[in-house]
Amino acid sequence: xxxxxxxxxxxxxxxxxxxxxxxxxxxxxxxxxxxxxxxxxxxxxxxxxxxxxxxxxxxxxxxxxxxxxxxxxxxxxxxxxxxxxxxxxxxxxxxxxxxxxxxxxxxxxxxxxxxxxxxxxxxxxxxxxxxxx
Length: 133
Known about the structure:
The protein is mainly alpha-helical. It has helices at 4-20, 25-47, 57-81, 83-89, 94-97, 102-129.
């Protein structure tokens, strides 16, 4: 039997993960990472050198942060907008079931959008720091 603290924490985190559909976020990360790899491959063909020379680990991290932020933002915003319809056809979802309040969902949505924005800033500045155009 898990300790009560762990059980309490999982009961708080699980609805957030369901609201943002974080189980499927890896597809978004893979898609944007593929774009970054294609750009590095293009730079390798134009400027020469190995693929890893043109791939920045900080940009990979920023790409993952942006992907998680935008994906979670879109999924949570969709649930906020569809909460009345979901109460009729998917009452088990976090918002219609009351496991997450509307204000909390808005805060989560805002924080995910902010993380995507900050990830974008980090992406741009990581290129500038490395001397890339």
